[in-house]
Amino acid sequence: MSSVKLGWGMSHSGKMLHISVVSRGKACNCVCPDCEGQLIARHCKERSDHFAHASLSECSGESALHKAAKQILEIASKENKRLLIPPLHGIEESEDYCGIPHIKAWEVEQDHILMESAQQEVSLANGQLVADVLVTEPNGATVAVEIHVTNKKGYEEINKYKSINQEAFEINLSTLPWDATEEVIHNAVLEKENRHWLYSHRETSLITSTRNQLDRDIDVINQKYFDRFEAEMKLFRESNNLLVKDLNWPLLEQLKKGVSVYGKSVSKKAEAVPKVTSILGEWENQNGGWKADGIVNGKTKVEVYFLLCGSSNVVEQAKRPSLIVWFNPIASYSDPVFILKWVNIQHWIEELSHRATKKLTSELEELRHKKRREEEYAKYFCLLSDQEKIYNVSARLSIPCPTVTAKPMHSWNCSRPVWKSLIWYYKIKRQQGGAISIKHIAADEWLAKMLGWSDDELLIEKRSKDLWFWFQDLNQFGFLEHTGRQRFSISKKLPKDFVPWQRVYP
């Protein structure tokens, strides 16, 4: 015997009966609406009343609720009751000439139709489609009603209804309990908002009418754009000079990058802001826009196009270097009313690229000369005595030169006044407002050449410690600021007469 519980059974006459209205046991005289096997009515005290199959069966009884709903709909039509139909709603979207989106909604509120008749399992589309129930109204109009209990209609059925222009909607009963009463199903079928259209020819009509109205609204908006455009263009034609307007002329630029002999990135830029200084001849109307010849910076002949924002067909016709002036009729207070763009200017771009390359080449060459001079000076400086070295740096710092009596420090290969004065002048004073790193200074290749020190790791560590303690003093005095680990930022204002080898007292 199947363990499936049914709330509805079918009499031998084909009528669907609820468990609450039949006699107990086999006396119910009902069969399963799915497999037509005999059912037993069970009226229980501790469990819900239900039908059960009288013998072993794999039947699920899924169509019991489905058939009960169709029957209730058919009976309701004989009583000329009203059936709730779903609402219709949607939106139509389109853009105006300037690309601004516009939306118009359409809607038909849910309503009721009077049922004159309702017939179950009606064949449509030459037998390719069978409607659960076909309801007929007093005016002869028909609407197909599909009952969704376990399987809802898919695109194939929807397209078939559309192909024969048959209105159809679906009622969702999938959440009803298996033992739902006749009253519950009656209310769900006739009145609940659990339904949606599969196809409605009214939707096509509404979409068309809404689209037409939206197009008319956009035509009005576009005409306002064109009127403003022509008013602005009139001012241009009368003045015949683009410079009378406060225009944001486009900046043309080319950037070239390279790597210097110091291993650092170097970039150079070439820029130009070409302006139309005069208009030649008269403006000509072309495809809704205006065209004239102009002169750039008093010498180069170009084409000038004045267009309403959104148009581009005229731009594609441009042959020579051309300035496109787009008028933006929807510009806000902060937006430009005129948008300018140069086209067909490959020759100008190539010229800027050549100038940028020339600047970069010159800069890289100058850096190579600078590095060569530094290396030559480092060799010269390295051969000097400590007294000569301190004299040299003191002169650069414009401070009195001391007499060196201290012995050279092994890790620096020079006395303390020498290395402190060198680092103060080259790494701190000449980089005011910048940043320095103890680690980088302690292993600096150029300082190594200046002082002839070793790149031994132990000596680098010793130089780092010396720098750390000195930088802490400078930090307290406000010349440096510790920013993390071995990094310090340099003050933007350093004293001109500071003596680096003397102890700092804050």
What does this protein look like?
The protein has 506 residues and is an alpha+beta fold. 33% of the residues lie in helices and 28% in strands. It is built from 10 helices and 24 strands. The protein has helices spanning 63-78, 155-163, 182-190, 201-239, 346-382, 386-397, 416-428, 438-442, 445-451, 457-477; strands at 8-11, 16-18, 30-31, 39-42, 50-53, 82-85, 88-95, 101-108, 111-114, 117-124, 129-136, 142-148, 168-172, 195-199, 252-259, 265-272, 276-286, 289-296, 300-308, 322-327, 338-343, 435-437, 480-484, 487-490. It has a 5-stranded mixed β-sheet with strand order 10-11-12-13-14. The protein starts with 7 loop residues before the first strand and ends in a 16-residue tail after the last strand.
Summary of the model, kept short:
The protein has ten helices and 24 strands. It is of the alpha+beta class.
Q: What would you report as the Rg, rounded to the nearest angstrom?
A: 46 Å
> What is the rounded distance between the termini?
101 Å
Oligomer: single chain
Query: Uncertain regions: pLDDT < 50 for 5+ in a row?
Result: none
Structural class: alpha+beta
Enumerate the strands of the largest sheet in spatial order, edge to edge or round the barrel: 10-11-12-13-14
Provide the helix percentage. 25-40%
Amount of beta strand: 25-35%
* Shape designation: elongated
Mean pLDDT: 89
Number of strands: 24
Number of helices: 10
Q: Outline the biggest β-sheet.
A: 5 strands, mixed
